[in-house]
Design a protein that fits this description.
heterodimer, A: 206 residues, alpha/beta, Rossmann fold, 6-stranded mixed beta sheet, 7 helices, 6 strands, 35% helix, globular, B: 643 residues, mainly alpha, Helicase, Ruva Protein, domain 3, Cyclin A, domain 1, elongated, GTP binding (chain A)
Chain lengths: 206, 643
């Protein structure tokens, strides 16, 4: 079984259920009163994909609030997957996704698989963002899309599978290179690091 | 560094250490460590090492502690019953933990929310509560700008997610009344502190205050039948003011969020390295960024890491510590990572497991004693920091002497003979030094407890390391600083003086030798002395340099920058206003002038025109009439002719 290490960041506006999604995915639990995420929180989970690949996912859960942006931005580096989450019952969380996307590509480089997630699909009665709108936004920006519910565990697993499958596909096609199999690490104080990584990546891509 | 451990904190920590040692001593008596009950500072310092070996307290010590707590409660009562409360005594006592029944009022007094004069309490409380109501009216119940609305929305989203550890099963933090209270506190605080404003994680701090202050009125774990608006109003205002006062102490940390957090994380990293070098190496090798796990500790003041009771105990010490508790907090965090039980576990873990462990510390099984150990651990790290600082600078001084020696003297080998004869020189030079050294030592001397007990160890360990270390042939003569002569000194001043005198003596010997061949040597000696005083000693004794947290400076920089911007803006506005005023005055004057001329001229012109027109009209009319008359005449004549 082929083994991969992927780095995945979960991002999006505050209070859309990023941490709940992770809790559901990693621990199969749900809690309505999760503490707010301060800075960045880390989880890891090993999953099997189509029973041919063993994938170790390093998941970085970032705080949604503006004050932490300068800190969370450091963790985008070298990520393979970005999960951009919004809340289908909150129009505001959907409105500014464009700038979030921009930030993802700015901080991590072009070579990243982005999956748009409309969370809280269990609250269909309070829905204000239609499925079509999410689909359209994803199509326009050429990213993947899925609606999930962290509460009743719909599509949570599938979301991660879709994203990883896409990464594996890109790797097989030679469009993406996993730089190293060891978990990638980030340091705030080493400023030369990103350049090196980018160079490595570039040489890998070509 | 010095800010982190003011004398009263050290005194309290030593007492805690003594208590811990005493309780550990009773359980260990059979194994023969009975001297732990001694109360002197030196033994307590020595026992610090031993405490760590005994982290799990048994029922004996538990019993002792509860007895001690009863006594403690009485002590608090006696202080609080006085008409004017002795703040220093209260502070010293509170550092070791406050009994639950006294906690609300003691926190309020120590945070300076209530004055020491008891008779003023009632008036101040009602004043402050009214003030808060006004603030709420001003900010919360008035028109809001779009920015304010986003702020309020953010607060509204986070408030229901506030859940202090251990309260997820009770209804208190699920009630909407409490959510509203918290929402108002956070929003009004953010509006009154626009430089920092709200950030996620801040909500945990007023939650702790709310809980503590509510214990005065209701059972916070029970159902909320006793809770009424009157109680909530009081508690809300108290919480708001205490939050403001507490956060004022941490302000400079959060104004420039990114820098402040980075600085703290770096300091934490350095402290951990001092205590557990292997662990710090391991963390570094695994690429484990300190910010990743420590950010939450810094922002929520460990309230998310400990259960409510333990967090209260820790905050007792923080609040008793005084306005600089933020510095102390970093040492506590360092002690937390280097908790003895965890170090071996952490060293075995890989990156991802490491982070997960540090993000969810297994503190559920902890009890009050663990917090005591944590505080003592923080002090140990502080001692290590001093030790390393002293070692560093001593090394510098010695290296300086070596370099001087190798430069000035070519015949070092001869010095060995002089060592025995120079006992008189020793006294002389130490006398010389005593005159000049104390003035420079003063900053550290203000905090005599810091060095008193540990200078010996520091010097001895330094000398040992120097013995092992082959620096050069000349350094082998330095061991004239023998252990017995150092041990005879009791205070740091003398020790320092002694250290220098001995070094000096060694140097003097060389000089004496050289003076035979070189007449300029006395001048050199003076030069070197002054060089030591100006170059090495200040760097050693300058506490602000040792302390990396130049936060105060930054605060001042920040304020001056703001002030300059404001003054600049004011000047600019003033100049513009002046110009505008002058311009308008000029235009008004000129306009009036021109208007008066214009009007008269134009009136005249009008009159003239009108007259012209009228005459023209008259002319035309008469012409018309004459023409008409002529035509009429002609036609009449034509008619006549026809007829």
């Amino acid at each position: 079984m082929e083994e991969f290490h992927f780095k995945c960041i979960v991002t999006g506006p505050p209070c859309v259920g990023k941490s709940s999604l992770l809790l559901q995915f990693c621990e199969k639990e749900f809690s309505a009163e999760l503490d707010t995420t301060v800075g960045v929180e880390f989880q890891s989970k090993t999953m099997e994909l189509d029973s041919t690949y063993k994938i170790k996912l390093e998941i970085w859960d970032t705080a949604g609030q503006e004050s932490f942006r300068s800190i969370t931005n450091n963790y985008y580096r070298g990520a393979h997957i970005a999960l951009l989450v919004y809340d289908i019952t909150n129009r505001q969380s959907f409105q500014y996704l464009g700038s979030w996307l921009e930030e993802i590509s700015q901080m991590s480089g072009e070579n990243i698989v982005t999956l748009l997630i409309g969370n809280k699909s269990d609250h269909n009665d309070r829905r204000v963002v239609k499925v079509e709108e999410g689909e359209r936004f994803a199509r326009e920006n050429n990213i993947l899309f899925i609606e999930t519910s962290a509460k009743d565990n719909t599509n949570v697993e599938k979301a991660f599978e879709d994203a990883t499958r896409q990464v594996v596909k890109l790797i097989k096609e030679g469009k993406m290179v996993v730089v190293n199999k060891k978990p990638q690490t980030v340091s705030l104080n080493q400023k030369e690091d990103p350049k090196q990584q980018q160079q490595q990546k570039k040489s890998g891509c070509c | 560094m010095a800010l982190a451990f003011p004398p009263h904190a050290i005194q309290s920590i030593l007492e805690i250490a003594n208590n811990l040692a005493a309780s550990a001593g009773t359980s260990n008596q059979q194994t023969g460590s009975g001297d732990a009950s001694s109360t002197s500072n030196i033994t307590s310092a020595a026992s610090l090492v031993r405490i760590n070996d005994d982290l799990t307290p048994n029922w004996m010590s538990e019993l002792k502690m509860s007895q001690a707590r009863n006594n403690n409660s009485l002590a608090f009562k006696s202080i609080l019953d006085q008409p004017v409360i002795n703040i220093d005594r209260l502070r010293a006592l509170s550092f070791g933990g406050i009994p639950m029944e006294h906690r609300p009022i003691v926190w309020q007094i120590l945070l300076n929310y209530l004055p020491p004069e008891k008779k003023l309490h009632g008036r101040i409380l009602s004043d402050k509560r009214n003030q808060y109501v006004q603030l709420v009216q001003k900010f919360y119940q008035s028109e809001m700008s779009p920015d304010d609305k986003t702020l309020l929305n953010q607060v509204k989203l986070d408030v229901p997610r506030t859940m202090p550890k251990g309260f997820s099963q009770t209804p208190l933090f699920k009630s909407t009344i409490l959510h509203l209270v918290l929402e108002r506190i956070l929003y009004v605080w953010s509006k009154t502190n626009p430089l920092i404003s709200y950030f996620q994680g801040l909500n945990d701090i007023p939650a702790q205050f709310l809980l503590v202050f509510l214990t005065q009125y209701i059972n916070i774990h029970g159902n909320l039948t006793d809770l009424n608006c009157d109680i909530l109003d009081k508690v809300e205002a108290d919480t708001f003011w205490c939050l403001s006062l507490l956060m004022n102490n941490l302000k400079n940390r959060f104004i420039n969020f990114h820098d402040g957090i980075n600085r703290m994380a770096m300091k934490l990293e350095r402290l951990v390295k001092l205590k557990e070098e292997n662990l710090s190496k391991h963390l570094q090798n695994e690429g484990c960024d300190f910010i990743l796990f420590s950010l939450r500790w810094m922002i929520c003041l460990l309230s998310r890491e400990f259960e409510f009771r333990l967090c209260n105990r820790l905050w007792d010490s923080y609040i008793a510590h005084g306005p600089n508790f933020g510095y102390f907090h970093i040492y506590v965090c360092a002690a937390l990572i280097t908790t003895k039980e965890w170090v071996p576990v952490l060293q075995k873990r890989e990156f991802s497991d490491l982070i997960v462990f540090l993000q969810r510390l297994p503190t559920d099984s902890w009890n009050i004693h663990h917090i005591d150990h944590l505080l003592v651990g923080a002090y140990q790290i502080f001692l290590l920091e001093i030790q390393s600082a002293v070692q560093e600078s001593t090394k510098k001084i010695v290296q300086f002497f070596i370099s001087q020696n190798t430069n000035s003297s070519s015949s070092i080998d001869n010095n060995n003979n002089n060592n025995d004869n120079s006992s008189n020189d020793d006294n002389n030079s130490s006398n010389n030094n005593d005159q000049s050294v104390p003035t420079i030592i003063e900053p550290i001397d203000k905090n005599p407890l810091l060095l008193e007990n540990h200078m010996k160890n520091i010097y001895l360990s330094f000398l040992k390391s120097q013995n092992n270390h082959q620096l050069s042939s000349s350094i082998n003569q330095v061991p004239i600083i023998n252990n017995s002569s150092i041990a005879a000194f009791n205070n740091p001043q003398q020790q320092l003086a002694a250290g220098f005198s001995l070094l000096n003596k060694h140097f003097l010997n060389n000089q004496n030798n050289n003076s035979n061949s070189n007449n300029n040597s006395p001048i050199d000696l003076e030069q070197i002395k002054s060089k030591i005083m100006t170059e090495f000693l200040p760097s050693y004794l300058n506490i602000s340099q040792i302390s990396p947290e130049s936060a105060d400076e930054e605060m001042i920089k920040h304020i001056t920058l703001h002030l300059m911007v404001i003054i600049g803006a004011l000047l600019f506005v003033g100049v513009i206003l002046l110009v505008v005023i002058i311009c308008t005055c000029l235009t008004i004057i000129s306009l009036e002038y021109y208007n008066s001329i214009d009007v008269s001229i134009s009136l005249d012109q009008h009159r003239f025109n009108i007259r012209n027109i009228i005459t023209q009209i008259d002319d035309i009319q008469t012409l018309d009439i004459t023409i008409n008359l002529c035509l009429l005449n002609q036609s009449i004549e034509n008619v006549r002719l026809k007829i």
